[in-house]
Structure to design on (216 residues):
């Protein structure tokens, strides 16, 4: 299934040949369109224009969504050795905070006990983990995920557990192409912070390193 998805993502624009072919058949029934060139001039522009207009409408909605997300913001910095990572991927991708970002420990929801937590800590032999009943972290980093018909959005919030004060926040979103994605595949997608521009790359770095920039 993954292979088929990759093939579709790359070659999806070839599906435009279906409506173009249907239009070409219609053109064949019109006497004035009695040459191949005229049939192609009749058959090609309309399907392409319709798909483009549908994509453009969704893209404009996505641009407005990106504007509402704004840029990464750090309101207050703290210096802590660890925090509570409120994220479903804490026990996998979350390990980067210990391996790359310089934190010495991290707490997360336990995958073994629905009401418990797991404490991950750097040790001389690697990362050790221990099941705990209560959190000791004073800071929470929470990732929220939202999805609609045209995009998927990630919002990251760092807050003080006791006061609930927001220390930093950031967000990013991925555009799937909207209703036109069946004909565009990966070619119709984008993100709020495009890695193809220097400003987009810088915002992506700020989001990726938000915990380090705020808490180290």
């Amino acid at each position: 299934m993954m292979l088929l998805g990759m093939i579709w993502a790359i070659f999806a624009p070839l599906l435009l040949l279906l409506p173009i072919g249907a239009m070409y058949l219609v053109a064949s029934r019109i006497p004035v369109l009695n040459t191949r060139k005229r049939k192609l001039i009749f058959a090609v522009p309309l399907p392409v224009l319709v798909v483009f207009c549908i994509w453009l409408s969704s893209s404009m909605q996505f641009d407005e969504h990106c504007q509402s997300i704004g840029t990464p913001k750090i309101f207050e910095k703290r210096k802590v050795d660890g925090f509570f990572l409120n994220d479903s991927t804490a026990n996998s991708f979350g390990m980067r905070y210990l391996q790359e970002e310089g934190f010495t420990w991290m707490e997360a929801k336990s995958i073994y006990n629905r009401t418990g937590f797991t404490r991950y800590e750097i040790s001389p032999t690697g990362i050790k983990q221990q099941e705990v009943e209560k959190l000791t972290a004073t800071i929470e980093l929470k990732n929220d995920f939202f999805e609609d018909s045209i995009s998927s959005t990630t919002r990251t919030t760092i807050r003080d557990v006791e006061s609930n004060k927001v220390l930093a926040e950031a967000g990013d979103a991925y555009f799937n192409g909207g209703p036109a994605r069946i004909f565009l595949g990966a070619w119709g997608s984008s993100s709020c912070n495009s890695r193809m521009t220097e400003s987009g790359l810088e915002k992506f770095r700020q989001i990726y390193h938000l915990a380090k920039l705020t808490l180290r």
The first strand starts at residue 73 and ends at 74. Residues 152 and 174 are 5 Å apart (CA to CA).
